Amino acid sequence: MIDNKNGDIRQFLFEEPGERTKRTIRIATAVSLVLLAAVLGAVIWQFYRTGQLDAKYWRIFIRWTTWRFLARGLAGTLEAAAMAGVMAFAAGFCLMYGRISRFRWLRALCTALIEFTRGVPTLLFIYFFFLVAPQLGIKLAAFWKISIPVAISACGVVAEVLRSGVNAVPRGQREAAMAIGMRDSHAFFKVIFPQAFRYVVPALISELVIVVKDTTFAYVVNFPDLMQNARVLISNYDALLSTYLVVAVIYILINYLLNKASDAAARRMRNTGTAAAPEMQTGAGEGAGV
Amino acid sequence: MSEARKEILKNESGNTEIPVIELRNVNKYFGQSHVLKDISLKIRKGEVVVVIGPSGSGKSTLCRTINRLETIESGEILIDGVPVPMEGKALAALRSQIGMVFQSFNLFAHKNVLDNVILGPVDVLHRHRKQAKEEALQLLARVGVADKAAKVPAQLSGGQQQRVAIARALAMHPKAILFDEPTSALDPEMIGEVLEVMTSLAKDGMTMVVVTHEMNFARRVADRVLFLDGGSIIEENTPEAFFTHPQTQRAQDFLNSIKEH
After folding, report:
1. pTM for the complete prediction?
2. Model ipTM?
């Protein structure tokens, strides 16, 4: 995360290695590479022995219909994740704004909601919308049954990430806005939040990665996302290893691209001089891990 | 300012002139500590009042109470004879008439220099963007940073940032400007350029309250020096009189302690 002008984080944490340390590092590297190769070899050998590498399991990926089917699933994943992301941001913003409000009851309410959504597993929200909501007479399309619970489970984290950004904006910024005659909300939207948002873009994108991964619960509500379509392929062709491998690579690619976008955004902000507050650069990573 | 003009100002204020800023028996507490003790003060139009005193004497707090960035526990603060409102739209409107320059510049970090200056005029005073821009460029030229209009604050030196902050205050056409230790966060070689701008403002007749440690500036530019210690105004005099013949032991001690380095 911290790849600022002075180099990467290792330069802050460790001394420059000396001769002996360099030799130790070389030996350790060699040993771990050998071990890794051994484990990988064993895994592949085991797959080979049990016939998982047989051509019949991989042939389906020559047909373009397989890819079209997976692409449809991917589109479903992206749609659900995008919708969940937008809803989580909107709800998270409201919860954050409520939590910093001057009304005590609103602060208490929003704090409770944030803690609730952060504490309950996503799957529980999905079961609620899948099993309980229909009994209450709420009929939703599968798309909403996945995107709403995923959004709910992310919005508390988003609220806290945004709030940490708001707290990181120096107090003088608000005072300067007050001094030219802005009122509280005016200063918040024009001066404080724009800066806070820039601080937390990396943390927000990390949360978006979690949202993408949470949409894999779509199989619970029979929404055809990438994971659900992969399961269909597996049950039809019995191609467990190959399909999961391909799907995993696709997920890794999506999230890799998201993280790249996050890095690019962070770099662009640094170059325009609106660098993240120093304490936020590490704070951002913490927010992502929640 | 000549003694003669001083007399005229004094007489005027004695009769009809309403002070731009007036404090009446202002008291301020931070928890247990009594940081402003019964402060009364009148500042006339066009006057430059420099507030000095040891750290912790309450001089910054005094400056910040005037536009209510700090609240007060008792007493009254009047701007142009009207009490400073407690809150809301009225308070915001009043603040828009009083400029403020901070120790740490506080330029809006996400906006470039020009946008920093026009944010107030456009967003608060609802002036036309184009008109505000033209004026902002003139103000930036006046403080000597016209060539930095498109830069963001982080790309500027401290002295340049503080001059932009002064332009931002001027863009609101304030009745007075409060300077809260405007040079305390600057490297020595940049202090001069900021004081120069402030001196020229004073010459142009701006009403100014300046909290500072720059004794030479106080001596050259101030119409009146307030010496604050322990939350009270200990001495109030012309700079000439204050610096050559301080009346109290505390002021003498303070001036000596500064001279030592």
Report:
1. 0.84
2. 0.89
